[in-house]
Design goal:
This protein has no helices and 11 strands. The chain is mainly beta. The strands form 2 sheets. Strands 2, 4, 5, 6, 9, 10 and 11 form a 7-stranded mixed β-sheet that branches. The chain has a 4-stranded antiparallel β-sheet with strand order 1-3-8-7, with no helix packed on it. Strand 9 and strand 10 form a beta hairpin.
């Protein structure tokens, strides 16, 4: 079991920055991959970024070069630094943490990011 709590969303103008955080607590397993998805009504859910337990990262083409994912294993926390934000980045952002042993994903409740033009 685990509880993931996101923070850091909000309203920002195009070109601005936001930093999302996601802290996992109550974990009874070793965390492997952590990452971020986003979802906008009417669109497919998009995998934004992932980071493994040895800090290997992967990004969607739409955010590469603008977003940076990182993690603090001691705090069971994953971060998403978002720079040069665009209106198309507007979405609810969800973090997840995958159990290293079972492959089961645990999810946060989502945080809204709104980028105004």
């Amino acid at each position: 079991q685990a509880q993931l709590v996101e923070s850091g969303g909000g309203l920002v103008q195009a070109g601005g920055s936001l930093r999302l955080s996601c802290a996992a607590s109550g974990t009874t397993f070793i965390i492997g991959v952590m990452g971020w998805y986003r979802h906008t009504p009417g669109k497919q859910r998009e995998l934004v970024a992932t980071i493994t337990d040895d800090d290997s990262t992967n990004y969607s083409a739409s955010v590469k070069g603008r977003f940076t994912v990182s993690r603090d294993n001691a705090k069971n926390t994953v971060y998403l630094q978002m720079n040069s934000l665009k209106p198309d980045d507007t979405a609810v952002y969800y973090c997840y943490a995958r159990s290293w042993t079972t492959g089961v994903d645990f999810w946060g409740q989502g945080t809204q990011v709104t980028v105004s033009s």
